[in-house]
Design brief:
Blueprint: H1 2-12, H2 26-34, H3 37-51, H4 57-75, H5 80-114, H6 116-126, H7 131-145, H8 151-168, H9 173-188, H10 195-203, H11 210-233, H12 236-245
Length: about 250
């Protein structure tokens, strides 16, 4: 869906992705395709370590870092100086994001102690609504709360009540996990917290403002909402592969 949107935007405004005037040679295309093999190795290392139970998803991030360092050393131009610089700037980026996380965590703890998410979900459950109406209400709750909390805090506050409620209404747990993941991802690109927005601003070295990045991401989270509608109408989109693996 993202690819279709990007294609249509580029057709509407060719300046976003101008055509190359000169004809590309097949040898150059093959050379460029072969040049990305180190990235494929990193992806295989990460996914393989998870699939074979060698590492947890969190530990797999470390596996990816180690694989990247090895590839950069033997097949790239990585030096000790460049590695130290990368660690330094990565630490600065992580520290700036952590201030946002700390603020969101403090707010999440305060709201959790007040029991606001639980009250909202209990109200939805007590309203005796149909499954679709409850799903719509849950999506609205996540859209609102996602603006103010990071994904982990949001899950800790809501999942103990949300999962039994939705499973009791007949929703598949795997399908529900996909929906919740998408909603949390939407929350990551909506201000004022929007951790992914802060990452983009930091990576761009503040050449763009948080507001500009937030506006640019609007079409994408609208597409994600359309994706949720499709998943609701056709649950097998999310359940087909898991059903083959189980």
């Amino acid at each position: 869906m993202f690819m279709i949107y990007i294609y249509l935007r580029c057709r509407q405004n060719p300046l976003l992705a101008p055509r190359i005037e000169s004809q590309l040679k097949i040898t150059l295309i093959i050379k460029n395709i072969l040049a990305i093999w180190p990235f494929l190795i990193v992806v295989i290392a990460i996914m393989g370590s998870i699939s074979f139970g060698i590492a947890t998803p969190t530990e797999a991030a470390g596996v990816g870092v180690i694989a990247t360092i090895i590839l950069g050393k033997f097949w790239g131009s990585l030096t000790l100086k460049k590695l130290v610089e990368a660690i330094y700037f990565g630490t600065l980026l992580y520290a700036s994001i952590m201030f946002v996380v700390i603020g969101a965590t403090i707010l999440a703890q305060a709201v959790s102690l007040l029991g606001i998410p639980q009250i909202i979900l209990e109200t939805v459950r007590a309203a005796d609504l149909g499954p679709l109406a409850v799903l719509f209400a849950v999506i609205l709750v996540y859209l609102v709360l996602g603006c103010f909390f990071d994904g982990l805090s949001l899950m800790i506050m809501t999942l103990p009540i949300l999962v039994p409620l939705m499973v009791g209404l007949g929703y598949d747990p795997i399908w529900l996990g996909v929906i919740i993941t998408i909603m949390i991802e939407i929350g990551q690109v909506t201000p004022p917290v929007g951790l992914n927005l802060s990452v983009l601003v930091s990576v761009a070295k503040e050449k763009v403002t948080l507001g500009e990045v937030a506006m640019a991401t609007m079409p994408y989270w609208l597409i994600l909402l359309v994706g949720i509608m499709l998943l609701t109408a056709i649950p097998q989109i999310a359940l087909f592969l898991p059903s083959k693996l189980m």
